[in-house]
Fold:
Amino acid sequence: MYINITDSETGNNKGSSQQLVHYLEKENRATPEGHILKELWFNTTSGAIMPQEVRVRIDNNIARLGKNDAKFFLLNISPSQKEITYLKERFGNQGAEEKLKQYAVCVMNAYAHNFKRPGIKDSKDLLWYGKLERYRYYSFKDPQVVQGTLKAGDRKAGEQMHVQIIVSRKDISNKIKLSPMNNSRGNKKEHSARLGEFDRVAFKGSGEVIFDQMFGFTRLLKDTMNYALTMKNGSTEQKREIYLQDQLQSRFPNTEKQTFPDTAMDSFKGQRSELEELIDGIGSPASGLFDISSSSDPLIYENMEDHIMDFKKKRKKKRRPPGL
Structure:
């Protein structure tokens, strides 16, 4: 599961959302006039929202924001081809689309929860609109277009269903500023009190947990964000550890994998040596999910905490007294 937060796919989020809303209507413009399958926008409370409402509501929810302040952000929720195939096999093509929209609502619940701000509990406290897209297209920057083998605008092959979400910088009451670009993670209290904490790594990691628990999806270690982060940023020892765990899981498919979240997180935090700093600074990707999805299984989190405590005890035994 790939979840990304950007300023805007059109490159400007300091003015009107009109350009971005227009861009995200591209598949509807390709649909013959009068066709009943035009894709409407959705949020927590409605699945049939017109683009005009999206633009007007987002553009008018900017109280006390300056000219150069971000007015909205774009979230890209892109399941892997394996995840899309799983949804379609289980729920059918149309059913898979509806399930992905329901999943997007849960992701926005996690988005709201991640700020840890009073009055911001779930997606109903946010002003946001989602748009399901079925295809992706080649751009002028893609190697195939540069080499002349394909044209810009051609559809990419394979399963490409995904959701794009425009979320306002201000909450739905137009009173509270919320920026997912804030990296304080609670370290700077005054800054966090004003803008809210937001841990993008934990947020993206929670997307995998929510998907797996909502749909009963079995995710291999090699398909997790933790594995990707470790192989990209980890030390040689960390890469070896998670690689061996992947090999073990390949031979024994029932091997538990939730006991290794700290490996990747430690890599992402700059390979800190102390697990205590890791826990204080970032937390596990699954933290806070108890009140996001009613289908959450507490045993997953209990096992994770047990592993962390065992790891801390081992680290303390290895410490040498100061001066030795």
The chain has twelve helices and four strands. The first strand starts at residue 2 and ends at 6.
